[in-house]
Amino acid sequence: MRVRFSSVLKNVNGWTLALTINPNALALLALELTDAK
Protein backbone atom coordinates (compact mmCIF):
# COMPACT_ATOMS: atom_id res chain seq x y z
CA MET A 1 0.00 0.00 0.00
CA ARG A 2 1.70 3.16 -1.21
CA VAL A 3 0.94 6.55 0.23
CA ARG A 4 1.55 9.78 -1.62
CA PHE A 5 3.35 11.73 1.07
CA SER A 6 3.18 14.97 -0.91
CA SER A 7 -0.62 14.88 -0.97
CA VAL A 8 -0.69 13.92 2.71
CA LEU A 9 1.59 16.84 3.57
CA LYS A 10 -0.56 19.19 1.47
CA ASN A 11 -3.61 17.97 3.37
CA VAL A 12 -1.89 18.46 6.74
CA ASN A 13 -0.65 21.91 5.76
CA GLY A 14 -4.12 22.84 4.56
CA TRP A 15 -5.71 21.76 7.85
CA THR A 16 -2.99 23.51 9.86
CA LEU A 17 -3.64 26.72 7.94
CA ALA A 18 -7.39 26.28 8.37
CA LEU A 19 -6.95 25.74 12.12
CA THR A 20 -4.80 28.85 12.38
CA ILE A 21 -7.42 30.95 10.58
CA ASN A 22 -10.54 29.26 11.94
CA PRO A 23 -10.52 27.11 15.11
CA ASN A 24 -13.92 25.76 14.05
CA ALA A 25 -12.04 23.81 11.37
CA LEU A 26 -11.21 21.33 14.13
CA ALA A 27 -14.89 20.43 14.38
CA LEU A 28 -15.08 20.10 10.60
CA LEU A 29 -12.02 17.85 10.64
CA ALA A 30 -13.62 15.67 13.32
CA LEU A 31 -16.78 15.39 11.23
CA GLU A 32 -14.75 14.51 8.14
CA LEU A 33 -12.85 11.81 10.03
CA THR A 34 -16.04 10.26 11.42
CA ASP A 35 -17.65 10.36 7.96
CA ALA A 36 -14.60 8.65 6.49
CA LYS A 37 -15.11 5.55 8.64
Question: Brief description of this entry?
Answer:
With 37 residues, this protein is an all-alpha fold.
What can you see in these coordinates?
The protein has helices at 5-21, 25-36. The chain is mainly α and 37 residues long. It has one domain (5-36). The protein is flat, with a radius of gyration of 11 Å. The two termini are 18 Å apart.
How large is the count of helical segments?
Answer: 2
Terminal Cα span: 18 Å
Question: How does the helix and strand content classify structurally?
Answer: mainly alpha
Low-pLDDT runs of 5+ residues are none
In total, how many domains does the architecture comprise? 1
Q: Beta fraction of the residues?
A: under 5%
In total, the number of strands is 0
User: Can you summarize the main beta sheet?
Assistant: none
Q: Helix proportion of residues, in percent? A: over 70%
Q: Quick one: overall form?
A: flat
Q: Which whole number gives the mean pLDDT?
A: 78
The Cα radius of gyration reads 11 Å
What is the H/E order? HH
Q: What structural keywords apply?
A:
single chain, mainly alpha, 37 residues
Topology summary:
Blueprint: H1 5-21, H2 25-36
